[in-house]
Every structure is written in structure tokens, then in C-alpha cells.
Amino acid sequence: MKSTLFIYSSTDGQTKTIISRIKSFLSNDIDSMQMPIAEVSGEDIAKFDRIIIGASIRYGKHKKELYEFIDLHLDELAKKDNAFFSVNVVARKPEKNTPDTNPYMKKFLLQTSWEPKNLAVFAGKIDYPKYNFIDKQMIRLIMWITKGPTNTSGTYEFTDWDKVDSFAKNVIK
Fold it and tell me: How many Å apart are CA 71 and CA 76, to the nearest integer?
């Protein structure tokens, strides 16, 4: 069985929840670890056979820490069995929910030298009550423009858990 390091860059927690779900498909998670990207070192990467990274989008961008991490560990990542997934609310739309059609995944692949062996895109979650005033208003405006939910008293989960499970089964063999 391959040892697996699950790395996440999450803004509001949905990416961490998704990576935990993927990790749950391991029959023996003694050989695995889940960590936020800011805490992962080169030594951590070296200990594992497989690396799975999930990263969220906020205001149209992955966090800078994702790109810095990949640049710093590119050679080691390339040697490992690996996978990458992006979590964004745009992926709630069927025409934008695959690696080939999602604008954020396409942008990510153009901006990095890393070529992940497995890719996925998952729709995220909007949790208006959890956001500060500015984020709430900005996300509401974006949702209004993209014809998404704008009622700021609600929480809207768009994640297709069957799709997450299918990805997990594919990458954890």
C-alpha cells in the first residue's frame, strides 16, 4: 500500500473537508497524513509515496502559498504518484466542472511547471453567515453576476460528493 500525504490549501474549510473525504477511502490510514500546505516540509514530502493536493479559489485565484509550495517542491512532486484538485463555486455549472473546462484549473496549469498525474475540479460551498461583511458583499456581488445564490442568510453547498468519491477511488488504488 502506498503511503499518502494529503495537502490542502483551504480558505473556508470546504477543501479540507473534501480532502478528508478522499483520505477516508484508504483502508489503512496509518500510512497517511493530512496537513495544511503551510505546514508541509520537504522532509514530509520525502516520507510519502503519493501526494494529493487540494486548493480553493477565492476571488478568482488560488492562494499564493500554493504556487510557492509547488515551486519549492517541484522536483520532489514530479517523482511521486500525485494528484491535484481545485475547489471553486464556478464548478457548480456543468459546463465548467472538469479540468478541461474550468477556467481556474486551466489558469493554474498555465501558471505552474507542475504537471499533476491526476486532476479534478469540485464545486465548493458558499457559507454567507460565516463570512465577514466585506467577503459577504463581494461574494454576493459575484453570485449576482454569475446567477448564483444571493440570500446572505443561507449556506449553499454545491460539492458533488459522488464525483469526489469517484476521484478518490481512482487516485487511491
Answer: 10
Helix, strand, or coil here: 76?
helix
- Which ranges of the chain would DSSP assign to H, the alpha helix? 14-23, 42-46, 64-79, 103-111, 133-145, 161-171
Q: One-letter amino acid identity for 124?
A: G
Name residue 133's amino acid: F
Cα dihedral 24, 12, 156, 145 sign: negative
Q: Tally Cβ neighbours within 10 Å of residue 125.
A: 21
The CATH topology of domain 4-123+159-171 is Rossmann fold (3.40.50)
pLDDT digits (tens, 9 = 90+) for 25-80: 887 666 889 999 999 988 889 999 999 999 999 988 999 999 999 999 999 999 99
Q: pTM above the 0.90 mark?
A: yes
CA dist 51 → 29, 47, 96, 97, 139 (Å) = 14, 10, 25, 22, 31
Where are the domains positioned within the chain?
Answer: 4-123+159-171, 126-157
Cross-strand bridge partners of residue 61: 58
Cα(89)–Cα(167) distance, integer angstroms: 18
